[in-house]
C-alpha cells in the first residue's frame, strides 16, 4: 500500500515490524536531518508571537496585557473590539472570544465540575480563575519563580480535580539548578497539586515529590518537555504526558550531550522514549491516587516523540494522543491497553524513521537497534506534511495550501491540540457531538472525526492564530486556547 498525497487513511494493521511497514508504505523524508523545523508545537511563536515567513502566514499582534496584577486581584478580560474575521465554520456555528486583553500566552484550560468557571494556565506560570458568565478573571496564583519559561518550556498542563474544585493539578518545567533558563540547559518536569484555602493557594509537589532527590523527567533542549494532564473515567486517576527530551532538529541518540546524566549503557537522546532510561520521557504515565500515601505510577504508552496534547474518549479510559512529528508526519495515536509502544524514534507516523535506522544500539555495543525493533503500534491517523488533512481541504486547497495553490506547505504542520466533545450539548448537531477534534497551529485549522471512524472533515479554517488546547465546556460547546492572540475562544451553534 502506498500513501497518496491526498487523504491518508489507516492501514488495517494494529502493529508492524520494520519489514511489514516497508511493505505497506513508501517512506518519504522531506527534510535533511539537520534542517531546523519551523516550529515544534509552540516553537519560536512562544518567544516572538508571530508566524515565520516559511509558514506563509503572519499572526496578529497579541493584545496588550496589564502590567502588574496581584494574586487575588480580579480584572476585566474584555474581548477585543478590534474587528477580526470569523473563521470558516460549518453552517450554524459561530466563534466567540471569551477572554482577551488580560492573558499572556495562555497554554491550557480546565473547567470546574459545574462548568461555570474555567481555569487558565499561562506559559509563564500564572493561573487565572475566569467566570463564564462575565469576562472577569481572578489571578489565583503565580508560579513564575518556579517555572522555566523559555522556548517550548513553561507551565503547559492544568487539570481541575473533578471531585474537588479546590484542587488543581499543574504541570511545568523547572528552572536549571544554576544559571538562567535560556537555551540548552538541564531542566526537569514537575507535577504539583495546588490547594485553595483561606490563606491562598498552597503547592504540594506530587511527581517528583519534594525533597525526594529523584527526577521523573529530564530535558536539555528548548522543546519536547512536559505536555498535558487528563483525568481518567474514575475521576481519581491522572494521566500525564511528556516529550522525549531530545534535540528537536538533529538526529539525537545521545551522542550530542550527556547533560541529563544517563548511564552510558542506557538509551539516551530520542531513545529515552523506549522506556529503559531512568526518566519517563516520551511517554504517558498513569498516576493512581495522586498526592496520597497510596500513589502509584505506571507507564501506559511510550515510543512517543512529543505527546504535547492528548484526550480521553468519554466513558472510557482510551486515550487519543496528538503526537507531534518531525520531518514527515503528524500523528494521532490510540491507547487501548497499557504498555503500547508507538515506535519513536524508529518510526514516525506510517514510516520508518530512516534518520535513526543506523543509530547505534542504546547501549552503544551493537548497531541497528531500529532494524531489530518490532511490535510498534501503528497510528490511528496520520497526515503527511506534504498532504492535505481532509478531502475538504484538497477540494478547497485550504488548511495548508500554498498561496500558489500548488499543494500543502511541508514547512507548516504541527498537531498542537486534541480533545473530545460529549453528548451534553443541546445545540450541536449529532455529527459534532461525541466527536474527536484536533488542531494544527501552523495550518490554522481544526478537524473532527468520530472514532472508530478515522476519516476527518474540516471543522474550522482560517483561525486568527492557532489552537494549543481543545476542551468541551459549558453547554457542551468546544472551547480552545489561542496562544498566538492570547485569547480563549468558544464555538457555539445556534
TrEMBL record:
SUPFAM superfamilies recorded for this chain? Soluble quinoprotein glucose dehydrogenase
In terms of Pfam families, this protein maps to: GSDH
Going by the entry's taxonomy, the superkingdom of the source organism is recorded as Bacteria
Occurrences of domain Glucose/Sorbosone dehydrogenase (ranges): 103-350
Q: Which InterPro entries match?
A: 6-blade_b-propeller_TolB-like, Glc/Sorbosone_DH, Quinoprot_gluc/sorb_DH_b-prop
The record's annotation in PANTHER family points to: HEDGEHOG-INTERACTING PROTEIN, HIPL1 PROTEIN
Q: What is this protein called?
A: Glucose/Sorbosone dehydrogenase domain-containing protein
Native species: Paraburkholderia atlantica
What lineage, starting at the top, does this entry show?
Bacteria, Pseudomonadati, Pseudomonadota, Betaproteobacteria, Burkholderiales
